[in-house]
Specification:
The complex is a heterodimer of chains A (300) and B (328). Chain A is mainly alpha-helical. Chain A has helices at 7-10, 15-49, 54-59, 78-85, 89-120, 126-136, 142-155, 161-184, 189-197, 202-213, 215-231, 234-240, 249-259, 264-298. The chains are: A mainly alpha (300), B mainly alpha (328). At the A-B interface, helix 2, helix 3, helix 5, helix 6 and helix 7 of A face helix 1, helix 2, helix 4, helix 5 and helix 6 of B.
C-alpha cells in the first residue's frame, strides 16, 4: 500500500495558508488545553494545599499562593508529619502495603495456573467453566458480603489480614483468569507442542514457556489488582470492621473525613498520602495499565 | 519504646507479606510433586484439576456460594430465621428511601455514562490532532488511579463552603462569589447535591472512556478517512458517518463497563454525604440496611436487585465471548 501524501504538505506554506491553519486548529488547541487544565485543577489544588500552613488553608484559597509576593516560606511539611503520626496514617500506610502485596501475588499465582489449564489442557467442562467465569466478571460484590461476613465471624477471620487477602483473591479471580486465559490462549501452538514432544512436563512448560511469554499480561493484571486493592474501601470496611490496627489508608482517610471534616491541612495531606503509591505505579507502569484496560474491555 | 514497637510492626508486616505470597506458590509446587508420583495416565487426567482447584475454591467460596446464599437470605427475615416470602422485595420497591435511591441511581447511570462516554469520545477525537497528546491524555487519565475516597476528599475541597463575607477556600464557590453570586452549598442543597456527586464520577471515568475510544479511533484505517476527504466530506460528516459506525462496538463496551461500575457506586456517596440529604443510591442503601439496621433480609434483597440489573450485561458479555471463540 502506498501511503497517500497529505495534500496540504505538498503546497507552499504561504503566509495565508499558515494563518488559515492557525485559525482552523486554534479551537482544537483551546478545547484540549481547557479540558486538560480543568481535569488537573482539583488534584493540583489538593497537592498545593497539603503543603500550606493550617491557618492559611482555613483563611484563603490555594490559588492565592500564586499572587505576588511569592514566599517559599509559606510551605511546610508539617501537615504530613501530623497526619502520619497523630492521625494514624503512617500505620495505615503500612497496613495498606501488608494488605495489597499478598492480595496481588496470591491471585496472580492462582489465576495464571488456572488460565494455563483453561487454555492448553484437555479436560471435561473446560469451556463451560470459562463461560461461567466470564459471567462472574460483573457480579456485584454486594451479593457476597453478608454470607462471607457471617462465615468470617464464625471462623474468626473478620478483622484479620488473612481474611482480606482471601476475599480480594476471590474477587480479583474472574478478571485475572479472563485476562490471562485470553492472552495465554494466543501463544503459538507450535512452541507448546514442540516442548511437549521433547518430553517437557506441564509444570516445565508452564514455568519455562508460559510464564515468561505472558509477562506483559501478568504485569497488566498485577497493576490492576494492586490498584484495585489499594483503593478499595468496601471490602476493608466490611471485613476489617472497626479494627484500627489493621485499617488501610482508605478507611483511615474516610474516618478522617467524618471526624476532622474541616481540618483541611490533615485531609489534604492524608488524601495525598493515600494517592502517592497509585500515582507512582501509574507513572511507572502506565503502559501495562492501558494494555490491561484494552484487553479487559475491548477485546472481550 | 516507640521505635521498637514500630520495628516489630514492620517485621510482622514483612513476614505477613512473605507468608501470604509465598504460601500460595509453595502450594502449587507441593501439589505438583504429589501428582508426579502417579502413573502417567492418571496424571494427565488429574493435573488440570490440580491447576484449576485453587481458582475454583476461591471462586466458589467468595462468589458462587455467597451469591446463592444471598438469594436465599433475601426471602428471609432480618436475622435469617424464618421465611417472609417477598416482603423484603416489597419493602425495596415501596419504601420512600429506596425509591429515592432508585431515582438517584437512574440519574447516575444516565449522566455518568452519557457524559463520560461523549466527553471521552470528544477528547479522543480532538487529541488525535495535537502534538502534546501523550501528556494531555496522561493528565486526563490520571484520576482513574485515584481511589474513590481520595477523589471524594479532592472534590470535598472543591465544593468547600464558607458563609458569605468570608474568603472562600473552595475553588467553585470562589468562582461563584467572584461572579457576584452567593456561595452555594453544593453538598447540602438538595436540588444540586446529587449532581455534585455525579460530577466526581464523571471526572474519574472520562479518562477510561477516552483511552479505550482513542485506541479505537486510531484503529480506523487512514485511507478510509483520506478517501472521504478526497470526496470533500466535511470533518463533521466524517465523524458521524465513518468514525462513529466503525467504533460502535467499542462505544458499547465502554458504556456497559461504566454502567456496571455506576450501578455498584458506593464509596463516593458514603464518604461525601453518608447518603443523607436525599443522595442515597442502591449500593449505599444496601450497606446501611446491613450495618446500621442489621437487617440482612432487606440488605440481601437490595443486593439481588443489583444483580438482576447487571444480568443483561452479563448475558451480552457471554455472547460476545462466544462469538470471539467461534472466530478463532
Amino acid at each position: 500500500m502506498i501511503p497517500s501524501p497529505d495534500p496540504r504538505s505538498r503546497r507552499q506554506p504561504t503566509l495565508f495558508r499558515r494563518l488559515e491553519q492557525i485559525f482552523t486548529t486554534a479551537p482544537v488547541h483551546i478545547v484540549v488545553i481547557a479540558i486538560t487544565v480543568l481535569w488537573t485543577l482539583p488534584t493540583a489544588g489538593l497537592l498545593i494545599s497539603s503543603f500550606r500552613q493550617p491557618d492559611a488553608l482555613r483563611e484563603s484559597g490555594w490559588w492565592t499562593v500564586f499572587t505576588p509576593p511569592f514566599e517559599p516560606g509559606q510551605f511546610h511539611l508539617g501537615n504530613y508529619a501530623d497526619v502520619l503520626a497523630s492521625e494514624g496514617m503512617g500505620q495505615a500506610f503500612l497496613n495498606s502495603l501488608i494488605i495489597t502485596i499478598p492480595a496481588t501475588v496470591m491471585p496472580i499465582a492462582i489465576a495464571t495456573f488456572a488460565a494455563y489449564a483453561l487454555a492448553w489442557m484437555q479436560f471435561p467442562g473446560r469451556q463451560l467453566l470459562f463461560v461461567m467465569i466470564v459471567g462472574l466478571l460483573v457480579v456485584p460484590l454486594q451479593m457476597t458480603l453478608i454470607p462471607v461476613l457471617r462465615v468470617y465471624s464464625t471462623l474468626g477471620l473478620s478483622g484479620t489480614f488473612l481474611g482480606v487477602w482471601l476475599a480480594h483473591t476471590g474477587y480479583g479471580m474472574p478478571f485475572g483468569i479472563y485476562l490471562l486465559r485470553n492472552y495465554i490462549g494466543t501463544l503459538p501452538r507450535d512452541l507448546i507442542e514442540a516442548a511437549a514432544v521433547d518430553g517437557a512436563s506441564h509444570l516445565k512448560i508452564f514455568t519455562r514457556i508460559i510464564v515468561p511469554l505472558s509477562t506483559p499480561a501478568i504485569a497488566s493484571f498485577a497493576v490492576f489488582q494492586f490498584l484495585w486493592v489499594w483503593n478499595d474501601l468496601l471490602v476493608a470496611l466490611v471485613y476489617l470492621g472497626g479494627n484500627q490496627n489493621v485499617a488501610p489508608v482508605t478507611l483511615v482517610l474516610r474516618n478522617l473525613v467524618g471526624d476532622r471534616g474541616q481540618d483541611w491541612h490533615l485531609l489534604t495531606a492524608g488524601a495525598f498520602i493515600s494517592m502517592i503509591i497509585p500515582l507512582l505505579v501509574f507513572f511507572a507502569l502506565q503502559r501495562y495499565f492501558v494494555r490491561g484496560l484494552l484487553a479487559g474491555s475491548v477485546k472481550g | 519504646m516507640q521505635d521498637t514497637s514500630n520495628i516489630l510492626r514492620l517485621l510482622s508486616a514483612i513476614s505477613a507479606i512473605i507468608f501470604g505470597s509465598g504460601g500460595i506458590i509453595a502450594l502449587f509446587y507441593v501439589a505438583n510433586i504429589a501428582v508426579n508420583r502417579l502413573p502417567s495416565q492418571a496424571r494427565s487426567r488429574i493435573l488440570p484439576w490440580v491447576y484449576m482447584t485453587p481458582a475454583l475454591l476461591v471462586l466458589g467460596a467468595f462468589l458462587v456460594l455467597p451469591t446463592i446464599r444471598t438469594i436465599i437470605i433475601s426471602f428471609m427475615d432480618q436475622r435469617s430465621q424464618s421465611w417472609v416470602g417477598l416482603d423484603n422485595y416489597h419493602f425495596a420497591f415501596t419504601n420512600a428511601a429506596m425509591l429515592t435511591a432508585f431515582r438517584n441511581n437512574i440519574l447516575w447511570l444516565v449522566l455518568v455514562t452519557g457524559l463520560s462516554v461523549s466527553l471521552g469520545l470528544l477528547i479522543a477525537v480532538l487529541m488525535d490532532r495535537v502534538k502534546y497528546e501523550p501528556l494531555a491524555k496522561t493528565l486526563i487519565f490520571l484520576p482513574m488511579v485515584i481511589s474513590f475516597v481520595g477523589a471524594s476528599v479532592i472534590w470535598r475541597f472543591m465544593y468547600a463552603y464558607q458563609p458569605p463575607g468570608i474568603d472562600q477556600i473552595g475553588l467553585l464557590n470562589a468562582i461563584a462569589v467572584s461572579l457576584g453570586f452567593e456561595p452555594i452549598g453544593w453538598l447540602v442543597n438538595k436540588r444540586i447535591n446529587n449532581f455534585a456527586l455525579i460530577t466526581i464520577m464523571i471526572w474519574l471515568q472520562t479518562g477510561f472512556a477516552m483511552v479505550l475510544l482513542s485506541s479505537a479511533v486510531k484503529g480506523i484505517p487512514k485511507d478510509v478517512i483520506e478517501a472521504a476527504r478526497m470526496d470533500r466530506a466535511s470533518e463533521f460528516q466524517i465523524f458521524w458517518r465513518i468514525t462513529i459506525p466503525i467504533i460502535s462496538s467499542t462505544l458499547l463496551v465502554v458504556s456497559t463497563t461504566i454502567v456496571v461500575l455506576v450501578l455498584k457506586v458506593f464509596d463516593i456517596v458514603f464518604v461525601m454525604t453518608g447518603g443523607n440529604l436525599d443522595t442515597e443510591v442502591i449500593a449505599s442503601r444496601m450497606i446501611k440496611e446491613m450495618f446500621n439496621f442489621r437487617n440482612f433480609g432487606r440488605g440481601s434483597a437490595i443486593a439481588v436487585i443489583l444483580l438482576l440489573a447487571v444480568i443483561p450485561v452479563m448475558v451480552a458479555n457471554i455472547r460476545r465471548f462466544q462469538q470471539q471463540e467461534a472466530n478463532r
